[in-house]
Structure formats: structure tokens, C-alpha cells
Amino acid sequence: MKDRATVLCIRNGRILLVARERSRWVLPGGRIRRNERPYAAALRELEEETTLAAVRLLYLFQFDGFRTQHHVFFADVDLHATAEPNNEIAKCRWFTPTKIATLSASVPTRGIVELFFRHVGIVNPTTPWSESPAIPC
């Protein structure tokens, strides 16, 4: 099984997703290099793909995909920083959780977003983020 650092970045109730040209939307992240810690890989991948630098990075949980084990992190980024597609990434955009369900998004991305809501105590992803103090905005 491959190890991947996956980053959940949330701003104003929206989740940052990235996509390569003609690919599905996914959470930022990528393969963990040999002798690299998942934490360092998450920081590196977020910046490489979106040009965003995490102010704070918090480990959330592991998620097993088909052939990949995702080490999922929550990233705090500067409120005024702009996400720009970089390297192999063709586009990056902020989506509401309910919109993610209608996108052409990867199965692990959908699963991680759903698990995140359960992790912070929200079962229904349509609940406004501002109504729950447990969710970082």
C-alpha cells in the first residue's frame, strides 16, 4: 500500500480541492518520499500544489483508499493567502462540502471529507459551519 500525505484546508466553510488537467478533483497532497515524515510531506505537497504555506498543521486521522493509505492533516493557512495551481496542478478551488458531493471527485476525497465531518462531530455535512464551534473556519 502506498503512503500519501493528504491535506484538508478549510476557509469560510469551503474546502480546497485541486485537479490536474482532465482529472478528478482531489484534496491537496501526494506520495510520501522515502525517509520523509508524513508531516513534512503534507507541508511540501500543499505548497508545491497550491503555493499555500501552512501556518499550522494538525494530524487528523488515517484513511485507507483502494491502494493508498492517506495520512490526513488539517492545515491552517493565512486568511489573505491565495491558492494558485502549481506544478502538475491545473486548477485549485474552494468548494462547499455539499458541492463536493456533486463534483467529479475521487472516492477517497469524498470519504475523507465525510469522515472529517464525523470526526468533528457533525453527521450532516449540510449543517452550516458557523453553527459549530468545533470546526475551524
Task: Show the helix and strand layout.
Blueprint (H helix, E strand, L loop, with lengths): L1 E10 L2 E6 L9 E3 L6 H13 L3 E11 L3 E10 L13 E5 L1 H4 L6 H13 L18
Parallel strand pairs: 1-5
Antiparallel strand pairs: 1-2, 1-3, 2-6, 4-5
InterPro entries: NUDIX_hydrolase-like_dom_sf, NUDIX_hydrolase_CS, NUDIX_hydrolase_dom
Pfam families: NUDIX
Protein name: NUDIX hydrolase
Describe this structure in words.
This protein has 137 residues and is of the alpha+beta class. The protein has a single domain, classed as Nucleoside Triphosphate Pyrophosphohydrolase (Alpha-Beta Complex). The chain is 22% helix and 33% strand. The protein contains three helices and six strands; from the N terminus they run βββαβββαα. Strands 1, 2, 3, 4, 5 and 6 form a six-stranded mixed beta sheet that branches. Strand 4 and strand 5 form a beta hairpin. The N and C termini lie far apart (33 Å). GO terms for molecular function: hydrolase activity.
CATH architecture verdict:
Alpha-Beta Complex
Quaternary organisation = single chain
Strand content: 25-35%
Largest sheet: 6 strands, mixed
Query: What is the overall pLDDT average?
Result: 86
SSE series: EEEHEEEHH
Count the E strands: 6
The residue ranges in which pLDDT falls below 50 over 5 or more consecutive positions are 122-137
Any idea how many domains?
Answer: 1
Straight-line N-to-C gap: 33 Å
Integer-rounded radius of gyration: 14 Å
Shape: globular
CATH topology: Nucleoside Triphosphate Pyrophosphohydrolase
Percent range for helical residues?
A: 10-25%
Looking at this structure, what is the CATH superfamily? Nucleoside Triphosphate Pyrophosphohydrolase
